[in-house]
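TL;DR need structure tokens for one chain.
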Amino acid sequence: MKKYLLLLVLAVAGLALAPSLNAAGHHFGGVAGIVLDSSGNPVPDAMVGVEVHTPNGRIYQARTHTDRRGRFSFQQVPAGPGVVKAHKRGVGHGQVRGKVIAGQVVRARIVLR
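>> reply
TL;DR here they are.
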């Protein structure tokens, strides 16, 4: 019984380390970060959007809001170059460009101006 449990644990660990794939074979990563105002303070409830250009020519888009600490995250984002934009009325808007890498979480720091 212990032998089978060890094999199960090793199999699950191997899956966790492998880059994420969907049925079509696309690789996925994540984007997480924080939105700050021009003074460096976290901005709660800011609108954040991610847009990634996938290798097959499609555009992936998703939106979320920051939490009370100005943090946000996106999971299962297709790998490829893209932009993360944020805005909040009365505070400003900002963006950062980068690349989503399969199996990794890319960090973004957006300052609204």
